[in-house]
């Protein structure tokens, strides 16, 4: 499936910018229980900055993301949003280029955390069918590849693109994922299914 990664990243970034300000900065985000809204925004801006500057040592690890949050400490949400916007044009152009596919994880990440923030604010997800199709396809293909690499028999999962997207990124409990429509016993596949997580408690959307 072909999609302009820079365009859909930008659309998500702008939606986040419209959602957040200092009045909601301290709102807890159940999907990321260690963080409030301000930390989620700091992470999103920090991911862009780290990819742009090539600071990828320990990428996706807790120390890597903690450093992003620490760099924004003492700044208002508006400041962080402004810094994110300042660096975004070049980053979004890169994402739209052929080489940008290598940074596709940032596009998954921004949509994941946009949905986290919307859930924390009591708002429904805002993901188009096109974006959901791309997210779901990427999650299915990645899972199939990991299953093969682990030497497990092929398995199919009857679940929506949204549930796969939220589940694989740790926004579902193990019991919730096991309740998907698996073509085999899901237990041997759970370690492979979760890229992050699972969460210990339901997080809403």
Q: Which helices and strands, and how do they pair?
A:
Layout (H helix, E strand, L loop, with lengths): L4 H15 L17 H17 L8 H10 L5 H20 L7 H17 L8 H21 L7 E2 L2 H8 L5 H5 L2 E2 L7 H4 L12
Antiparallel strand pairs: 1-2
Descriptive overview:
The protein has 205 residues and is an all-alpha fold. It has nine helices and two strands. It has two domains: 5-120, no CATH class; 130-193. The chain has helices spanning 5-19, 37-53, 62-71, 77-96, 104-120, 129-149, 161-168, 174-178, 190-193, and strands spanning 157-158, 181-182. The chain has a two-stranded antiparallel sheet with strand order 1-2.
Radius of gyration: 17 Å
The total of beta strands comes to 2
Give the integer mean of the pLDDT values: 95
SS-derived structural category: mainly alpha
Largest sheet: spatial strand order: 1-2
Put the structure in a nutshell.
The chain has 9 helices and 2 strands; from the N terminus they run ααααααβααβα.
How would you describe this structure in keywords?
single chain; 9 helices; 2 strands; 2 domains; globular; two-stranded antiparallel ribbon; mainly alpha; 205 residues
